[in-house]
Amino acid sequence: MIDLAIIGGGPAGLSAGLYATRGGIKNVVLFEKGMPGGQITGSSEIENYPGVKDIVSGMEFMEPWQEQCFRFGLQHKMSEVSQITKQDKIFRIHLSDGSVDEARAVIFAAGGSPKRANLKGESEFWGRGISTCATCDGFFYKDQEVVVLGGGDTALEEAVYLSRICSKVYLIHRRNEFRAAPSTIEHVRSNSKIEIITPAVIEEIKGDKAGVTGVLIKHTDSNTTQEINVMGVFIFVGYDVNTATLKQDDGSMLCECDEWGSIKVDLSMRTSVSGLFAAGDVRTQAAKQVVCAAGDGATAALQAIAYLEHK
């Protein structure tokens, strides 16, 4: 019997493992099919994590996390989790090979990933001028012009954020109307550094060996094209959270989730199911920053320790 199962090996999962094992839980198993590290290992540069003064790649940044977290007894099981259920106060971790592990408590930190727009040039220049995080990468385009693609709250909020750093922000959306909150839309429309281009779509993201050099857009109302020379393109067309393994046989979710599938938690990372905690990008209102995910993981672990001691 596993005392604590951690699903996901990104910053939230690894931090949870560190705090849980150092906190005295003896049998803690982290389920991650590949090597731990998470989505951040694909980032080319990280410079905004407190205490890390050098600019490092995501792979370099996460390498010491693994060594530190496993030092205190965290176990890594390289298996794919297909479903998580709960029966008689015990969680059942169903694996893709058909086997089942049992656990007294679970921290779910499977993360998620930004949706891609399926644009020409998107795959080629992903991470080389194309970003899905203004907080992470906006500083690299200080006093430059950038493009933001999207029409929801995230796209508009990030466009406003980028306008404080960049000389100009081109906000491109396929419809004339935005899906964001009215106050956010008004904030964007009143911002002199944001140029709204609607209705329009990006036909192609162009670039060279150094990265993005511009975008070719199509104005769908006039059927005309326009090329904008920029080195940065920020895409905000949605986010997929990895909560499929929480779906039960009857189609319901193991715990309460919002309309987008993100897990609802309280400030202690507790879900609606006793003994199940969620941390990182998979929870509602996640900031999607490494430092925040790490904090979530630590909080969830401390609560899991209290839960197991009480039980």
TrEMBL record:
The reactions it catalyses are: [thioredoxin]-dithiol + NADP(+) = [thioredoxin]-disulfide + NADPH + H(+)
Report keywords, A-Z.
Disulfide bond, FAD, Flavoprotein, NADP, Oxidoreductase, Redox-active center
UniProt record, GO biological process: removal of superoxide radicals
Q: Which family does it belong to?
A: Belongs to the class-II pyridine nucleotide-disulfide oxidoreductase family.
Encoding gene per record: trxB
Q: What is the lineage of its organism?
A: Bacteria, Pseudomonadati, Campylobacterota, Epsilonproteobacteria, Campylobacterales
Lineage, top-rank taxon, reads: Bacteria
**Where does the sequence pass through the membrane?**
none
Q: NCBIfam families attached here?
A: TRX_reduct
One of the record's GO molecular function terms: thioredoxin-disulfide reductase (NADPH) activity
Subunit note: Homodimer.
Where in the numbering of this chain does the FAD/NAD(P)-binding domain appear? 3-297
Keyword Flavoprotein assigned to the entry: answer is yes
The protein's name in its UniProt record: Thioredoxin reductase
The reply to whether Flavoprotein figures as a keyword in the UniProt entry is yes
Q: What's the Enzyme Commission number for this chain?
A: 1.8.1.9
PROSITE patterns the UniProt entry points to: PYRIDINE_REDOX_2
GO CC term (a single one): cytoplasm
Free-text remark on how the cofactor is bound: Binds 1 FAD per subunit.
Q: Which InterPro entries match?
A: FAD/NAD-bd_sf, FAD/NAD-binding_dom, Ferredoxin-NADP_redctase_2, Pyr_nucl-diS_OxRdtase_2_AS, Thioredox_Rdtase
Q: Which cofactor does it need?
A: FAD
